[in-house]
Amino acid sequence: MSTPRPLFDGQERSHGSLGMMDLVNPATSEVIALIPKCGEVEAHEAASLSAEGFAIWSVMSALDRSKIMRRAADLMRGQADSAAVEMTREQGKPLAQAKGEWQASADLLDWYAEEGRRAYGRLIPTRAPDMRWAVHRRPIGPVAAFTPWNFPAWTPMQKLAPALAAGCSVVLKPAEETPSAALRITRALLDAGLPPKVLTVLWGDAPAISAALCAAPEIHKVTLTGSTRVGRILASAAGQHLKKVTMELGGHNPVIVARDADLATVVPLAAEFKFRNAGQVCVSPTRFLVEQPLYADFVAGVSEAAKKLRVGNGMDADTQMGPLTTAGQLSKIEALTADAVQRGATLEAGGSRIGNSGYFFEPTVLSGMTPGMLAMNEEPFGPLMLVMPMEDIDAALSEANRLPYGLASYAFTNSMSTEREIVGGINAGMLGFNHFAMAMPETPFGGVGDSGIGSEGGIEGMDAYLRPFLVSARVA
């Protein structure tokens, strides 16, 4: 594994203005590399480069941009195995999940490569015969993009693909814990023909970098995938300079299990998707609101499934769940579990740290949850399945909508009337029935309330990087 280094104008930086920092393997707690730590100095340089890159990239034809992006997607697919190893070493997820994420990211780049060729404007019927009204769609300008550690390839690509397709340049700051995937994506784009100034990658002192980029006059848009707390900080900083934002923030996603649901379907899916990536997924199903007739059988089924999961180093072929990515996340999960048990929850499975090295925690099922418990109010972002009995669908909807979050929501039912009731009553950006798969290139991905501003994915994701430009002309 090569040491990750920031990229400026296509060139690596071996040191940062703030020195060096540790890169840690979450499965062993060992330092695997010393990497450069950037700060305000590099952020200002990156912003300046982005303005130069925008002048080059924005005037290229959509077809030429598309060709570069598609070549890069093909290059990425050829690197799936090595990319997965890097991602697992830095983030912890099992190799199979890392490889799937990498390949899905290449698909996302491919999709937007084509969508960029369909960024159509329109003609508007005028009020006078000698007038012509035309609406063009122009790239919004250089973009500052901030991404987290839980999906180190997918989340950067959710921003890079539509921004590049629209004709924007990008300053990308991936998480300090997982920089390699963003670097590998960038190198694939450069090898495919992307002009080097179009994309800069840096990391280090996150508050200093974000403050500098939000204030930089060269940057016209700020986009973040992260916590609600950080989203408020960046949205406020961008707002001071009247910059547009897209914020994909936290969630505390409810799952309504109706009394007519098929437990043979619900239980294995719930265990698979709850503990995927050790629960470190913004759309992870978390609050399971189960109608009373199915409650006991559901708790028994998911508890048995959780106990059977193989937890270990993501590099091992038989591992089904890896470690949490940071020591802080491990401490948070321990505290939330202890609080729930102290307040009366029943520990049905798991509940403890595994071993003394690495950040491993057992797949955990807690039943008898109540609204006053911390885990029912703070996004766990870990392997906690919280189960609460519900009298009816109205009660489930009330609990589902109780929190200010509104990212993903899920429901399992075979009743059309129940489906209609949930569709009409849920407050969320996304709703899945009888499955948990949400993020696709073609579909919008975003929430309401404390879960964010705007959407990524689909045509909505493309719109976020374009601005309308009206040309009104009087003709002879």
Provide the number of structural domains: 2
Rg result: 23 Å
Q: Using the 3D structure, state the CATH architecture of the largest domain.
A: 3-Layer(aba) Sandwich
Report strand order across the widest sheet: 14-17-18-13-12-20-21
Proportion of beta-strand residues: 15-25%
Give the class-level CATH name of the largest domain: Alpha Beta
Task: Give the overall pLDDT as a whole number.
Answer: 97
Quickly give the structural class.
alpha/beta
- Given the C-alpha coordinates, what overall shape results? globular
CATH-defined fold name of the largest domain: Aldehyde Dehydrogenase, Chain A, domain 1
Write a structural description:
With 476 residues, the protein is of the alpha/beta class. It has two domains: 7-249 and 451-474, 3-Layer(aba) Sandwich (Aldehyde Dehydrogenase, Chain A, domain 1); 253-440, Aldehyde Dehydrogenase, Chain A, domain 2 (3-Layer(aba) Sandwich). The chain is 39% helix and 22% strand. It is built from 14 helices and 24 strands. The chain has helices at 40-57, 62-77, 80-91, 95-115, 154-166, 180-191, 206-215, 228-240, 263-274, 292-308, 327-342, 393-400, 416-425, 458-463, and strands spanning 7-8, 11-12, 20-25, 30-36, 122-124, 131-139, 143-146, 170-173, 199-201, 221-225, 244-248, 253-257, 285-291, 346-349, 353-354, 360-361, 364-367, 384-390, 405-406, 408-412, 430-433, 448-449, 452-453, 466-474. The strands form seven sheets. It has a seven-stranded mixed beta sheet with strand order 14-17-18-13-12-20-21, sandwiched between helices. α9 (263-274) links the parallel β12 and β13. α1 (40-57) crosses α7 (206-215), α3 (80-91) packs across α4 and α4 (95-115) runs parallel beside α5.
